[in-house]
Amino acid sequence: MRVLFDNTTDFNLDEDLIKKVIKASLDYEGIKDDTEVSFTLTDNDTIHMLNKKHRGIDRPTDVLSFPLIDFSQETVNDTKGTLYLGDIIISIEKALSQAEEYGHSIERELGFLTAHSMLHLLGYDHMTEDEEKVMFAKQEDILNKIGLRR
Q1: End-to-end distance of the chain based on CA atoms, in angstroms?
Q2: Are 63 and 77 in contact (CB under 8 A)?
Q3: What is the maximum span of the chain, computed from C-alpha positions, in angstroms?
Q4: Triad 36, 40, 44: Cα angle to 5°
Q5: Quick check: 28 and 137 in contact, CB under 8 A?
Q6: What DSSP line would sit under 28-72, residue for residue?
Q7: Number of folded domains in the chain?
Q8: Count of alpha carbons within 13 Å of 70, Cβ hemisphere only?
Q9: Is 73 exposed, middle or buried (0-12, 13-18, 19+ CB in 10 A)?
Q10: Within 13 A of 18's CA, how many CA atoms are on the CB side?
Q11: Cα 67 to Cα 21: distance, rounded to the nearest angstrom
Q12: What is the rounded distance in angstroms from the CA atom of residue 92 to the CA atom of residue 106?
């Protein structure tokens, strides 16, 4: 597993924590292949611009996921060699705000957002209530397995 990091902020990112969450997400889904994920930590202004450009939503968000695999067309098993999953982009400003709002640590919030994004990169979505239940249960299982409990 390879994670490419880009931290455009002054926040001291614990890259080992992010790698741990990504690995736990891959293990949870039974993916043992050579994988690569790009992880960017940014600010509200940048994520706002990306959210508007790519999703047409004119406001900052906490996390954006840009999967490179179209799971409606292929599966993880179709890929040979390195499995390039895609990009995770997190706003540290939103993460800090949400950690305070929910009463947990910034580590827990960054872990949650990373697990959430990883599931998107692995083909999950939460457009329906049933999809949301499945995805959020998986996120909690992943975080609990590495000790990032609420």
Answers
A1: 27
A2: no
A3: 43
A4: 155
A5: no
A6: HTT--S-EEEEEEEE-HHHHHHHHHHHH---S--SEEEEESS-TT
A7: 1
A8: 2
A9: exposed
A10: 22
A11: 17
A12: 9
Q: How many Å apart are CA 114 and CA 89, to the nearest integer?
A: 9
- What average pLDDT does this structure show over 130-140? 93
Provide the residue range defining the domain that includes 139: 2-145
Structure tokens at 111: 């872990």
| pLDDT tens digits along 54-108 | 999 999 999 999 999 876 666 655 556 788 999 999 999 999 999 999 999 999 9
Residue 123 lies in a domain: yes
In a domain, 125, yes or no: yes
Name the token pair of 93: 């400003």
Task: Give φ, ψ of 31 to 5 degrees.
Answer: -95, 115
Q: Is residue 110 part of a domain?
A: yes
